[in-house]
Amino acid sequence: MKKKKRGRQPSNKVTKPALAKAIKIAGGVTNLAVDIGISHACVSTWLYTDEKIPAHHVPKIVAATKGQVKPEELRPDVYTFHK
After folding, report:
1. Which of 12, 18, 25, 50 gives 73 a disulfide partner, CB atoms 3.0 to 4.6 angstroms apart?
2. Please, what CATH class does the domain formed by 17-70 belong to?
3. How far is residue 67 CA from its own chain's centroid?
4. Where are the domains of the chain?
5. What is the distance of C-alpha 81 from the center of its chain?
6. CA quadruple 20, 22, 25, 31: dihedral, nearest 10
7. Which residues, 6+ apart, have CB-to-CB distance to 78 below 8 Å?
8. Tens of pLDDT along the chain (83 residues)?
9. Measuring CA to CA, which residue among 37, 82, 81, 57 is closest to residue 18?
10. Using CA atoms, how far apart are residues 44 and 66, in angstroms rounded to an integer?
C-alpha cells in the first residue's frame, strides 16, 4: 500500500520569479537562508510551492539583496504602494 505524502508537494517549476532573483543575487538558496536567518528548506518550499513568503521575512530578503528585489515583487498582496 502506498503512503500518502503529507504537506504541500513541490513542483520542479519556480513559482516566484522574484524569489529566484533574490536567490541568484545571494549566491544560492543556502546563502539567502543564512542571510535572513532561516533554513534552506523554507526558502526552497517558498520557491517551488504555492506557499506565500511570510510578510515578516520580506524586509529581510530585500535587505539581503541590497534593494535589488523590491517588497512588492515578493508579496504584491501586502506591499502595494500607490504613487
Report:
1. 18
2. mainly alpha
3. 15
4. 17-70
5. 20
6. -100
7. 55, 58, 71
8. 555 555 555 556 777 999 999 999 999 999 999 999 999 999 999 999 989 999 999 999 999 999 999 999 999 999 876 55
9. 57
10. 21
